[in-house]
Write a structure and sequence with these properties.
The structure is a homodimer of 470-residue chains. Chain A has 470 residues and is an alpha+beta fold. Chain A has 2 domains: 286 residues, Zn peptidases (Aminopeptidase, 3-Layer(aba) Sandwich); 119 residues, 2-Layer Sandwich (Alpha-Beta Plaits). Chain A has 14 helices and 18 strands. In chain A, the strands form 5 sheets. Chain A has a 6-stranded mixed sheet with strand order 1-2-6-3-7-17, sandwiched between helices. The first copy, chain A, has a 4-stranded antiparallel sheet with strand order 11-13-9-14, with helices on one face. Chain A is elongated, with a radius of gyration of 24 Å. The structure holds zinc ion (2 copies). The site of one zinc ion has 5 residues of chain A, from loops. The site of one zinc ion (ZN) has 5 residues of chain B, from loops. Chains A, B: This is Acetylornithine deacetylase/succinyl-diaminopimelate desuccinylase-like protein.
Chain lengths: 470, 470
């Protein structure tokens, strides 16, 4: 790290440095709680994780701390620290404390719930996604208060940490609606996205949405021997394959009706930034499941393909006999799980409707088709990079990381659009993790110095915002 | 049954009628032995089944009976009953005594190895495929001897009953070669095919061949989250689907190189017979796994599609996540099991080669393709309907069934072509079972009066052959 922590130009950095040891030991305590939200067996752990966070916030001095555990949603934590100035803007920090399952557990080098520090890296489930980044904000608020030597922050800071993000936030909308007054704010700071790279810190400006569905084709009531009927009846597995093959045209574009009609391209500033980011294809492929080649929609770079272009992917396909050897049947049915990554301003409902039409048009005579939505999907979101909050964020991050930062996006999905829609305010992204943190995989880790930089950026942002949003 | 069994024009019928009770009790004994050849746990039962048959043949007076149980093949039974006249032709009857597995066993109305007579139907695994038809031949020989009141048949009759047909006859070629002298003959009578229908008895004149292979496309070394790489890397499941979709053209023809080059169409006599056979599409569909519509190569009837036209079918397809809900991954790999039904004079080796080329041409950059043959396949076979043995067979069957019979085929596969190739003689088909006997399925049965007619047809054939083949 460059910059002198004792330099009065860097009071936030000095404060973060002074609090770093406590931060790390607190985070390790929290990471030891296996709050696997998607696994009902870990329901108690999710509750314990929420309680741990509430206790930590109270220890830190947050005046108002609540655990929301009344409805069907897994427990969420809410806290509020009002600004000195009642006219100051209100920001809501969003994150989540539920974590992904740990299978295959045998591939972890350290037990997933025994957080282990190896050099600068802290290994453990949730270290990066998302407990590490929530803890980063707790540190950021403490550093902000220490740096300005005040009992209250420069903006009213609210914290909303849900427990169902990894389950697709199924109860987020009612939760937001039930707590509308508590959550009222001028800006959401969404904290669940990575930097582009350690040597290229960036500000994320958007996430893709997603819509998933399963298509099932059924022919007969049972498999039939192909010696009897092969060549004489429709084969549901062949039909599913033809449906999938028809999903893209020769240029790699998705052939659902009006799929591209509402697509908004990123701003010129963002496009220029994407092109200027360092991109090593071999490294990117190695970090993409060891893929052997890039591929996709004609006329777009790999980063554009995975950040700002919508897609159709087969997540799973199944039909007939898949055991050892040959079994010469015409299967009774076959199915495919499809998911579509969406970009602004595509809507999951529109894609769902177009998919139903597409399946109907590609169902051969003699087969019955069923389209089963897999959840409601998540709309895409992109921040307006011309908004003054983005300018403040950029200044804060550049100061904290001691270098110019560019814009990036992430190809994954999250509830940013829901927060935007229900709360009626802009959402900006502040994250300090890395794309190769192995989130959702064995050996999840976080790079601790980046979390400290992120906390410093947050502390700086709280200082900058009153003037920038006025 | 019409026809007077005491009428001297029907001595074979009278003999069959006199022997029918013993026939049935013998068959029930044999069917009680669970000779499931594909299941190593039933190896002893296959041996017991072979021994039962050898004992039954000795009881019947066959002068030479052997159990071939030396090599890797499951035990086969060989027997020979020389003709009175050393110049008389030699026929070899082919059948098998191994049976299919019985899963799902809970769907059997009677235990599969407790043969149960309900009216005219005998239920039990192997009743139709193929013990019932082998037993029919034992009865046929006894009736032939009784009808001509002789100690020896009019032709030298050899019997070869293998134990591995349901396993794809993997050791048949070496078995035939090892016993070349024993098996030398002028004609093979192949007994493992059905009549067209109870009210439309037919002579089968051919079976399709088969070639099966699995195609595997591999992209990365692991699945990758579609939020990271979706839209930017090739998806093996999509590629497998495109490969399958490309296998047929718009008219339902298979697009492998030279796939149709060697196809020989059936004779005009056969085509006329197919068109004249009663065909109820609803019944056919109901008996074809409950399929809802016919479908297939343009310009051909359903019977032609499943009897004399080659096909490509997906028997199984698999890739990615197929559990409950959505998992937004790009799978690391995907695979499809394909099988091709072949007709004369297609060769499995040629199709295997064309498939390899086709897969290579349809492997997108970044994916690795593997084509794994699932066995050697079986060549197709069709009898020359102008051969005098077919004429004799037709006369024998028409006399036994008291009606004109037409030619039919079956869409399944068997070792007829191998017998033809290795023994160097024509193969004709004599069967007396039905397509809806539920072979390879729960509640397999055989219609006993049809087996008696079949035995009579065999007995008549042995009487007719010396003159017809001279
Ligand atoms: Zn997350
Ligand atoms: Zn059989």
């Amino acid at each position: 790290m460059s910059g002198d922590p004792e330099n009065p130009e860097h009071p936030e950095r000095a404060a973060v440095a002074a609090l770093a040891d406590d931060f790390l030991s607190d985070l390790r305590e929290w990471l030891a709680i296996p709050s696997i939200g998607v696994d009902p067996a870990h329901r108690g752990d999710v509750r314990e994780s929420a309680q741990w966070l509430a206790d930590a916030l109270r220890r830190d001095g947050w005046p108002e701390v609540q655990v929301w555990d009344a409805g069907p949603a897994l427990p969420a934590v809410y806290a509020c620290w009002p600004a000195e100035d009642p006219e100051a803007p209100t920001v809501l920090v969003y994150g989540h404390h539920d974590v992904q399952p740990v299978d295959p557990v045998e591939r972890w080098r350290h037990p997933p719930f025994e957080p282990t520090l190896v050099g600068e890296e802290l290994f453990g489930r949730g270290a990066s996604d998302d407990k590490g980044q929530v803890a980063m904000h707790l540190l950021g608020v403490k550093a902000h208060l220490a740096a300005r030597a005040a009992a209250n922050p420069a903006v009213t800071i609210k914290l909303f940490v849900e427990g169902e993000e990894e389950s697709g936030s199924p109860h987020l909308v009612p939760l937001l609606d039930d707590h509308r007054a508590d959550l009222a704010c001028d800006l959401v700071v969404f904290t669940d996205t990575p930097l582009y790279a350690r040597d290229a810190p960036t500000i994320c400006t958007g996430q893709r949405g997603v819509y998933g569905a399963e298509v099932v084709f059924t022919g007969g009531t049972s498999d039939v021997h192909s010696g009897r009927a092969g060549g004489g009846v429709p084969n549901p597995a062949t039909a599913i394959a033809r449906l999938v093959a028809a999903l893209h045209d020769d240029r790699g574009r998705v052939r659902l009706r009006d799929f591209y009609t509402d697509v908004v391209e990123p701003s010129a500033a963002e496009r220029a930034d994407y092109a200027a980011l360092p991109f090593d294809e071999d490294v990117w492929l190695a970090n993409s499941g060891g893929a052997q080649a890039v591929s996709g929609e004609e006329g777009w770079s790999t980063l554009a393909r995975v950040w700002v272009r919508p897609t159709a992917e087969v997540n799973g396909i199944h039909g007939g006999y898949t055991g050892p050897g040959l079994k010469t049947i015409v299967p009774a049915d076959a199915s495919v799980k499809l998911s579509f990554r969406l970009v602004p301003n595509q809507r999951p409902e529109q894609v769902a409707e177009a998919l139903r039409e597409f399946v109907a048009a590609h169902t051969p005579p003699g087969l019955h088709a069923e389209v089963i939505p897999l959840g409601d999907g998540a709309p895409p979101y992109a921040a307006d990079v011309a908004h003054p909050a983005v300018g403040a964020l950029k200044d804060a991050v550049e100061a904290a990381f001691d270098q110019p930062v560019r814009f990036s996006r992430t190809g994954g999905s999250g509830p940013a659009a829901i927060l935007h829609d229900r709360l009626g305010v802009p959402v900006v992204y502040l994250g300090a993790t890395l794309p190769d943190d192995h989130i959702h995989a064995p050996n999840e880790r976080v790079v601790v110095p980046l979390l400290l930089r992120g906390a410093e950026a947050a502390a700086r942002l709280w200082r900058l915002l009153p003037e920038r949003l006025s």
